[in-house]
Amino acid sequence: xxxxxxxRTLRLDPSDTFVFAPAAEPGEWAVTGSFLFFDxxxxxxxxxxxxxxxxxxxxxxxxxxxxxxxxxxASEAEREEAVEDLARHIxxxxxxxxxxxxxxxxxxxxxxxxxxxxxxxxxxxxxxRSARDGEIAEEFRTLHQRPPGADPLHGRAFHFVETDEDGPxxxxxxxxxxxxxxxxxxxx
Length: 188
Description:
Elements: E1 5-10, H1 15-19, E2 30-31, H2 47-55, E3 57-59, E4 65-66, E5 68-73, H3 76-94, H4 99-115, E6 124-132, E7 135-143, H5 174-183
Antiparallel strand pairs: 1-5, 2-3, 3-4, 5-6, 6-7
Protein name: DUF6505 family protein
InterPro entries: DUF6505
Pfam family, one: DUF6505
C-alpha cells in the first residue's frame, strides 16, 4: 500500500500575508477551497477576495489562503484530523445540516486534495482558478526545483552587476515624464 499524501500550505516568503485575508498558517493541511466561492458573484470579486479566488488553496484549520502547497506524507490520523477540522467549518460556517453531512463533504474535499498528490513528496503545486461558462475551473502546475549544477541565473527577470566604472550616472525625471504626458508634449 502506498503512503497517504496530502497537500500542506507552504509559505516561502511573507507575500501571502499581504495578498490574502486571511492567509493560511504554514504547514496546514490544505484543500483547493473552490467551495468557498460557489455562491459568490465572481464578477464582483475585487482585491484580496479576487486574489484568493484566482490562486488560493485553503488551509483546513484556519480557512486562510495559501498560494502554494507542498505534497507531504500524512498518517491516517492526520487525514482524519484534517477532515474534522474542515467538517467543523462546513457545519458552523456553511450551514451543513449536521456533523455527519459536514464530515461527508469534508472527506470529499480531502479526497480531491489527495488526488493532486500523485507526485513525489516535496513537490510544490500552484493553482489558477477561473470562471468558465458559469463553472469554476481549476488548473494546477507543479513547480520543480532546479537540478544541481543548473544555471543559477536561468529564469531571473533581472541580474544586477556591480561595477567600478566612473561613467555618467543614469537618471530619470519621473515627475517630468508624467507632467509631459499630461500636457501632451511627451518630452521628458
